[in-house]
Every structure is written in structure tokens, then in C-alpha cells.
């Protein structure tokens, strides 16, 4: 009898996995310049992708209609008959309303109701959120956070985005904008931020912050004549600093030392809020590797309140770089 | 027929409310000096209370046995036949384990399993948490947060405690110690904290912090000859500063101005985490009233990231001062 039951279980598992691999979702990552649209399998593989030049659209209806055309094209090309949902990650994307509200890097002003516009063309559930929340959910569904209930992600890019998962669900809060840890004030009266305030984490720990720190140090170290001193101030980017650090440039290493320390404090503070099991890091500057992660982990450990000692892992995202944004968006379709 | 149904509903409601008012819980607030035990009605009235001198107990079993005796005495005196649960608020009280772990202000060293000890004498559900979490839950069940899903409380005392409610539930996190916002680093490399680190919010915004700020300002303002300059440095308390501020003393007012500003930044940062609908303030220093609340609200508004504009109320706890700790502990019995 026992072997019979086991056989039944095996058959059932086989059928379930067959059904699973036949289920596809759409992930859409709306950026200021490009919109990436991907067809994602149940196990988290981006099997096809297309894109549109966001900046060339001034009419939201036409924009969404073209997105939906691309979706139908992909489904036809890949012989996919049905999709189970569409997840959209957009700057200022609001989970509760399904809208983008006043995103400064898009040509559509005011409120764009993505949910309603998509439903004019495709009748599947549509989930909208901001890109940082999508990244967190991508990590949960397809990445290193599989099976976790409580974790936080920090995405280092032009700014610092973050997503918070509590009890297996994305935290949205009253406004739908919970988890804006890039705009936590790290240094009161510190560096000016694009949000109009001062001292926000993202002025220190983003690609923009890394550039700012490098320029500050170049000013303070007139005797330094390394590779970064050969690049004009206007042209210097965080990528230059990362490459220089990789080659052992002392000023670049100092920049990442400081960046890691600032992030370490911010992450220890985040732990005092939700006591997560892990914090995941993603985004361009994370590619700098240990020159960023070593000081980050050291300062994190020193800054962590003793009640959390040993309870939190600092980890790097396990999503593939190229598809991370699309996978994150597609993962939103799994958020209940 | 309709009137019949309505009648049935009325009868049902009447019976339900009768049952409700006959349901009592026990709230126990364990402090380093005293342990307060209260019998709390369903509508949140503390109908009887007793206490024990915590400091005189060195044996946890005897201590809990005496607590249980007091509970039976109260029930007998108040003619209460049954209770639906016991909530215990204790420093380092852990929701997951039902234990107190290494509380520095108690004579019982190591781990005290309150849950197991109580069950030796009384067989009802026992819920343990720390005092700040209990305060938050008290506000939800019996106070100003009734009906809210997302809010945060800050309790200003010797330290700064906090409790975070998300989707109507207390946030415990992986360790059971989520919501230690008193130990968020507000000023990197700032004032030394009892936890061994520097710059924690509680070194600025607690009663201890208020005393520290007053001493710093007394040092900086040698020309000041107001009431606070007449008190020896050793004897100066936050209560002195509060009374002086109430009487318009300029140095005391400056202390509360700074305290309010620090709290305003910390609260704006907390909003960037969970986007709550309200933040509640409780504890001794809050009695200073507008001299604290005005600068707090002003700095909070300036420090809040624009996406949260107008979404959060800063409010004072609506629990009665004398019974707040017992009501908070009793409220824990309602946490599912």
C-alpha cells in the first residue's frame, strides 16, 4: 500500500510540475528610457523579451496598447496560449491603485491608470508596484529569498530603492509607498537629496552618492594623482570608481569603504525595525564586490543592536542581472 | 420576516455584549522594581489591581507562584469565575518563546520561561512580549488606535521603546525583537548608549536623553541662571526639565525643542519604513505637551519624504496613564 501511495504521489508531482512549467506570466519593467517586457516561465526563466522606447511616447493609451501588442506577439512566437497575470514595475507605481502617480521621468503627467489601460486589451490580473518592491518580490519568488518570510532588499542605482517582505508579503503600508529606505535620513542636515530634503541614505549609498563621495575625496586629497584624477569631474561616474577600486586605486577603495560603512549603519537600523532573516543587495555598485561588502559587513556588525546578533545574513541578490527587473515585475503576479 | 430577522439579530447582539462584558483578562506589567497585576474587563477597564516587589524575588518559580496567588485573590474578591487569558509585558519578554531572556534589571539570570511557570498554576493562554510592544497593542485594543491596521508607538521612559503594528498585528520579526526603534542610530558616532553603541535614538529622546541634553546646554550656557542651574548635576532629572519648561524657563524650552526635533527625524524615518496611518507617543516626557509636540511636528513635517505628505497623524496615547501598562499587557491576550 505504501508503495502505491508513493506512486500516486510521484504521478501527482509529475503532473503538477508539468502544469507549472506550462504557466507563464508577463513582467514589465518601465524605465524612463526603455520599457522591457518579458515572458517568464513558472520556474523563473525569462523565455522571451521585447522592448519599447518609453521616452518616445506622450500618450499613455497608445503606449499601453503597444505594450499589449508586444505581449501578444511574444505569446504567438513562443506558442504560449495563456498567461496567468501581468506584473508591472514602474517608478511611483502604486500597488493599491494600479496607477503611476506623477513620475518625474515619464512623459505622461498626472496619474496613469496602468491597470485600467491594460484591461482594455488583455483580461488577466494586473499587479503594479514600484521597481524596488518588484525586486524584493523577484528575490522571494525566483531568487535567494525563496522560502523566507522576513527580509529586506536594497537596490543601489541612480537612487537607493528598497523592498520589505514581512510574513511572506510585500509591505505597502497606508499609502502603498512603504519601504522607501533610500529616503531615510542617515545624516541629519547632510547632503542635499533630489527629494528636497537633506541627508537621505541615497545621497550616500547610490551610484550618485558614490560619485559625490569620490568628488569630495578628490577635493580633500590634492596630492592624489591616480586614475580618477585624470577624468574630468563632469564625466566621472560610479563605474569609473568601481573599476579603479577593482584595480586597487587607494582613493576609489576609500570611497567604497565609506559607502559600505554608511550602508552598514542604514541596514542595522532597518533590522531594528523588522528583525529580518536576511538583507539582499542588488544593483550596479554591488558588482564592486568585497571592496564594498567587507566594510559594509564590518560596520553592520558594529552597528547592530545586540538583540539581533547573528540573526541576519547580508547577501547579494541571486537573480540574473539582465533579467532581474523583468523577473521582479513577473513575480508581482504571485503576491496575494 | 425582515423584522423577525432583525429581532434575532438584536437578541444575538445583546447576548454577545453580555458575554463580552463578562469576559476578563489579566494584564501583568513586570518592572525592575514593581510587578503590577490587573484584572481587565472586555471594554478595557482595569477593575482591580495588585502588586509585588519584583526586586525582592531571586527565585523565578516563587515569584510566578506569588503572581498567580494574587490573580486568584483578585478573581475571588471581584467574583470573577474565569479569565480568558494572561498577557505579560516584561523587559526582554519574547513573544515567540514566552520567556524573559537575560533581562539586566531582574534578579533572575538567564532565561525565565514565564509561559511554562504560569501554566503550573493556571491553565489559560499566556502571551508574553516586551513592554513597548504591549503598549502598542494596548493602544490598538483599548486606546486611540482602535480600528487601525498600521501604526507605530513610541514610549519615552528611561529608554525609548516602540511597537509596530502592521495589518492589525504586532510585528515580531525573526527574533521576536522587531520594533526596537529606540536603538536606531540617529546620529552616527553620537552619544554613548547603554547597549554599547553610539548615537541611538534613546540617548537623545528618552528621559535619560532629556537629562543629558539639559546637562550639555548648562555647560554651554554659563550665563544662564534659571531654576535648572540651582539643581545639582547629580540630582537633575527630566521631570525638573519638564516642570521648568512648563514655567517658561528658556534653557528647559531649548531642551524640549531639540528633543522634539530628534524625535521628528526618527519618526519620519520610521514612516519611510512602514507608511503607518498614525504614530502614537506615550510616557512621562510626553506630559510636557506642546513644548515637545510643536517642534516634533514641525521637524517631522520637514523630514517626511513627500510621498507620505498628509498621510500620518502624530497623536498622544489615549490610554489612562495609571493603567496603561496593565491594559497593554492585557491587550496581548487579543493578539492572534
Account of the protein in words:
2 copies of one chain form a homodimer. Chain A has 336 residues and is an alpha/beta fold. The first copy, chain A, folds into 2 domains: 2-138 and 326-334, ATPase, nucleotide binding domain (Nucleotidyltransferase, domain 5, 2-Layer Sandwich), CATH 3.30.420; 147-318, ATPase, nucleotide binding domain (Nucleotidyltransferase, domain 5). Chain A is built from 10 helices and 13 strands. Chain A has a 5-stranded mixed β-sheet, with helices on both faces. In chain A, strands 11-10-9-12-13 form a 5-stranded mixed β-sheet, with helices on both faces. Chain A has a 3-stranded antiparallel β-sheet with strand order 5-6-7. In chain A, a hairpin with a 3-residue loop joins β1 and β2. In chain A, α4 (131-142) packs across α10 (324-331) and α8 (250-274) packs across α9 (290-303). The longest helix of chain A has 25 residues, at 250-274. The A-B interface holds A 92, 149-150, 164, 166, 171-181, 183-188, 195-197, 200, 265, 268-270, 272-277, 302-303, 305-308, 311-312 and B 92, 149-150, 164, 166, 171-181, 183-188, 195-197, 200, 265, 268-270, 272-277, 302-303, 305-308, 311-312.
Amino acid at each position: 500500500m505504501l508503495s502505491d501511495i508513493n506512486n500516486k504521489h510521484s504521478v501527482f508531482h509529475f503532473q503538477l510540475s508539468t502544469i507549472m512549467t506550462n504557466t507563464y506570466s508577463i513582467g514589465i519593467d518601465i524605465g524612463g528610457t526603455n520599457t522591457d517586457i518579458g515572458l517568464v516561465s513558472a520556474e523563473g526563466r525569462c523565455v522571451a523579451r521585447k522592448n519599447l522606447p518609453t521616452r518616445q511616447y506622450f500618450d499613455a493609451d497608445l503606449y499601453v496598447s503597444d505594450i499589449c501588442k508586444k505581449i501578444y506577439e511574444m505569446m504567438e512566437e513562443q506558442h504560449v496560449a495563456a498567461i496567468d497575470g501581468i506584473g508591472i514595475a514602474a517608478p511611483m507605481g502604486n500597488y493599491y491603485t494600479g496607477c503611476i502617480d506623477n513620475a518625474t521621468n515619464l512623459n505622461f503627467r498626472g496619474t496613469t491608470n496602468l491597470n485600467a489601460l491594460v484591461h482594455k486589451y488583455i483580461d488577466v490580473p494586473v499587479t503594479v508596484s514600484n521597481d524596488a518592491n518588484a525586486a524584493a518580490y523577484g528575490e522571494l519568488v525566483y531568487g535567494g529569498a525563496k522560502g523566507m518570510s522576513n527580509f529586506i532588499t536594497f537596490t543601489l542605482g541612480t537612487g537607493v530603492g528598497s523592498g520589505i517582505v514581512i510574513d511572506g508579503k510585500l509591505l505597502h503600508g497606508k499609502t502603498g509607498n512603504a519601504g522607501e529606505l533610500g529616503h531615510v535620513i542617515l545624516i541629519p542636515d547632510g547632503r542635499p537629496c533630489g527629494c528636497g530634503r537633506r541627508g537621505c541614505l541615497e545621497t550616500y549609498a547610490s551610484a550618485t552618492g558614490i560619485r559625490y563621495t569620490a568628488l569630495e575625496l578628490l577635493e580633500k586629497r590634492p596630492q592624489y594623482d591616480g586614475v580618477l584624477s585624470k577624468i574630468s569631474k563632469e564625466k566621472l561616474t560610479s563605474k569609473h570608481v568601481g573599476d579603479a577600486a577593482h584595480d586597487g586605486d587607494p582613493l576609489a577603495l576609500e570611497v567604497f569603504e565609506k559607502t559600505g560603512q554608511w550602508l552598514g549603519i542604514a541596514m542595522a537600523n532597518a533590522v531594528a525595525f523588522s528583525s529580518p532573516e536576511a538583507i539582499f543587495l542588488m544593483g550596479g555598485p554591488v558588482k564592486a564586490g568585497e571592496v564594498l561588502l567587507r566594510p559594509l559587513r564590518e560596520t553592520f556588525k558594529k552597528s547592530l543592536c545586540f538583540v539581533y546578533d547573528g540573526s541576519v545574513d547580508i547577501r547579494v541578490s541571486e537573480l540574473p542581472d539582465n533579467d532581474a527587473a523583468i523577473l521582479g515585475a513577473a513575480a508581482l503576479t504571485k503576491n496575494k
